[in-house]
Design a protein that fits this description.
single chain; Aspartate Aminotransferase, domain 2; Aspartate Aminotransferase, domain 1; eight-stranded mixed β-sheet
């Protein structure tokens, strides 16, 4: 059977049309009509007041930390159950990460977050909270904790564009938020990200830093250093076309999840990542836990049928890079890493392909 990928790009059909407009205009660099249109589409969809199209979501997190004044030896709290792109920006700024474990939602535990704030050797300045696999964290509790503690809240919504809590879009609860448009996300511009905030001054500052911190002069003058972090007009054109189909992509990913859920309904040892009350996830990836079976053996089994799957994220506090990191953990994410599996979830998958994958998993359990 043709290879079934974990989460391949799914183009809408209008990308080529918009790219042709970009080439006709000859504005292919990080400036042009489609950059503005892409940022506007993000604002319109999410309700964020300001948006900045960038080369990656990691770039967005880096800019957020710098704009908020996070620097050397500051403590930044972060979800441990996440991808390293969520936290590498902390190191870019010379700050110190402190990792917080998950609870039954798989996302960061508000209880352990409170404990981390107390345990930290000095007051943390910010929290980067990841909305894991497209499911919103307990953001109402997290917002309250950050407000009470005077801690900036940055939402890593790289995986959760189109997910909501109480009807409000992920990425818009905190001080700043980021979305990813990497190759395997629910929407893709091949590579890219967007930083959002309701604070115009912060986004203006991030925009300045993202274009090498060039002063407003006819020649190149720099009072401080910046970065080459802007998204090109070409990739923004792809983003405009992708944003037009976001709702249908979310709907299809949710349908795929429901098929898996139905196919595994009689198998007691399989459980799914939950959707917390008052939330609606985008189900970027359908993810499961095995009660007894070895997910790494299942990955090999599926590979023999040309099916791509993947372990859950290895927690950051277990990474060799962070072997001495500050932590507030209870073993939850470590246990999920040992038991978990990400299933093929691309929105272009047919029902037949989803059931085929499910059937091969059932075969692998027997």
């Amino acid at each position: 059977m043709k290879r079934i990928f974990l989460s391949p790009p799914h183009m809408s059909g209008r990308e080529q049309e918009y790219i042709a407009e970009v080439f006709k205009s000859n504005y292919i660099a990080p400036v042009g009509e489609f950059v503005d249109r892409f940022e506007d589409s993000i604002k319109d969809y999410t309700g964020a007041k300001y948006a900045l199209a960038l080369s990656s979501a990691t770039a967005g997190l880096h800019l957020a930390l710098r704009v908020l004044g996070i620097g050397k030896d500051d403590i930044v709290l972060a979800s441990t159950f996440t991808f390293i792109g969520s936290v590498s920006s902390i190191l870019y700024q010379g700050a110190t990460p402190m990792f917080v474990d998950s609870d039954s939602s798989w996302n960061i535990s508000p209880k352990l977050l409170k404990e981390a704030i107390v345990k930290a050797p000095k007051k943390p300045k910010a929290l980067i909270v990841t909305h894991l696999y497209g499911q919103v964290a307990k953001i109402d509790e997290i917002v309250q904790i950050c407000k009470e503690s005077g801690i900036y809240l940055i939402e890593d919504s790289a995986e959760s564009l189109g997910a909501t809590f109480d009807g409000k879009e992920s990425g818009t609860f905190g001080d700043m938020g980021v979305y990813s448009f990497n190759g395997n996300k629910i929407l893709s511009t091949s590579g890219g990200g967007v930083l959002v905030s309701d604070n115009q001054e912060w986004i203006d500052r991030a925009r300045f830093l993202s274009t090498q911190a060039k002063e407003d002069k006819i020649y190149y003058e720099h009072n401080e250093f910046g970065y080459n972090y802007r998204m090109s007009n070409v990739l923004s054109a792809i983003g405009v076309a992708q944003m037009e189909v976001l709702d249908s992509r979310v709907q299809r990913r949710r349908e795929i999840f429901e098929i898996y859920k139905q196919e595994f309904s009689s198998i007691d040892e399989i459980s799914f990542m939950p959707e917390i009350e008052n939330s609606r996830g985008n189900r970027w990836l359908s993810t499961i836990l095995f009660d007894k079976s070895n997910p790494f053996e299942m990955i090999e089994h599926l590979q023999s049928f040309n099916i791509e799957s993947r372990p859950l994220w290895k927690p950051m506090h277990l990474q060799p890079l962070f072997s001495d990191a500050l932590c507030s953990v209870d073993g939850s994410s470590e246990e999920m890493f040992k038991k978990g599996l990400c299933l093929p979830s691309g929105s272009s998958m047919s029902d037949e392909s989803v059931r085929y994958v499910a059937n091969k998993i059932v075969e692998g359990l027997s």
